[in-house]
Design a protein that fits this description.
about 230 residues, alpha/beta, 8-stranded mixed beta sheet, 12 strands, about 25% helix, binds cytidine-5'-monophosphate
C-alpha cells in the first residue's frame, strides 16, 4: 500500500506501549528492568509514517516522543493499566511492547529509607495488563512481546493463547543474543494461526516495518470479514 495515499477507512487507531515501568521503593529508589524503549518508539514511528492514528504510552526513557500522534507518560504498571483503560475504547489495535515490571513493592516508604543495615523488601506481583484488558478486546488486534531464555517458540505460542493475542513477537535472551539496547535482533513473529515469520539479524526499524505489514494484513482481514 502507498502510505501517502492511505484511505480514511484504512487508518488503524493504534496504541503502542513502550519502555520500562518503574515501581517506587521510596521517593528516591525504584525497581525496574533494562528496557530502553527503542523498539516501541520505532514501531510508533513506523505506524505514523503509514498515516495511522497513533497513541504512544511510554514509561521513562531517554528517547524523545514522535512529534506527530499522541504521547502519554506513565511510571508504574498501575499507571499504565489506568492509561490503557482510558485509551483502549477508541483503539483498533494494541501493541503491548512495554516491559512491565512483574513486581511492585508492597509498602512504599514516604521518606527516603536510611542506610542502617539490612532491609527486606516485600514484592507483590503487578496485574497482568493484557489479561486485565481482555474484556475490551472484541474485534481489536492485540499484539504482545515475549522475551525468553529458553524454549522460545513453545513459550511464545503458550503466551499467545493464554493472553488471547493475535500476534506475538518472540525475542530470546542468550549469551550470544542480547536485545537490550542492541539494534540488531533475531526474532520470530507468530500469529494466531500459528504462522511463524523468522527474522534473523535485522534492525529494530526493519522489524517494526514487517510487524506493521502483518498488523495491517490481519486488520484488513478482520474488516473484510465484516467483524468490525
Ligand atoms: O508474561 P510476560 O511478561 O512474558 O508477557 C509479555 C507480554 O505481556 C508483553 O507484551 C508485556 O507488555 C505484557 N505484560 C502485561 N502485563 C504484565 C507483564 C507483561 O501486559 N504485568
Amino acid at each position: 500500500m502507498e502510505h501517502s495515499e492511505i484511505k480514511k477507512e484504512n487508518v488503524i487507531r493504534i496504541i503502542v506501549t513502550a519502555g520500562p515501568t518503574q515501581e517506587p521503593i521510596d521517593p528516591v529508589r525504584f525497581i525496574s528492568n533494562r528496557s530502553t524503549g527503542l523498539f516501541g518508539y520505532l514501531i510508533a514511528k513506523e505506524a505514523l509514517k503509514r498515516k495511522h492514528n497513533v497513541t504512544l504510552i511510554s514509561g521513562p526513557t531517554q528517547i524523545l516522543p514522535p512529534k506527530a500522534g499522541k504521547s502519554v507518560s506513565i511510571e508504574t504498571a498501575d499507571d499504565l493499566l489506568k492509561a490503557l483503560k482510558k485509551e483502549i475504547k477508541n483503539a483498533d489495535c494494541l501493541i503491548m511492547c512495554a516491559a512491565v515490571s512483574d513486581f511492585k513493592v508492597k509498602q512504599t516508604s514516604a521518606k527516603k529509607i536510611k542506610r542502617k543495615g539490612q532491609i527486606k523488601l516485600e514484592l507483590v506481583p503487578n496485574k497482568d495488563i493484557l489479561k486485565e484488558l481482555a474484556g475490551y478486546k472484541r474485534h481489536k488486534l492485540f499484539v504482545g512481546f515475549n522475551l525468553e531464555t529458553s524454549n522460545l517458540v513453545k513459550n511464545a505460542k503458550l503466551k499467545l493463547k493464554d493472553k488471547n493475542l493475535d500476534l506475538i513477537v518472540a525475542n530470546s535472551l542468550t549469551k550470544s543474543h542480547n536485545p537490550f539496547g542492541n539494534n540488531m535482533l533475531d526474532i520470530k513473529i507468530i500469529d494466531k494461526y500459528n504462522n511463524i515469520l523468522h527474522i534473523t539479524h535485522k534492525s529494530k526499524s526493519f522489524i517494526a516495518y514487517v510487524l506493521l505489514d502483518k498488523i495491517e494484513e490481519l486488520w484488513y482481514e478482520i474488516k473484510e470479514q465484516g467483524e468490525v
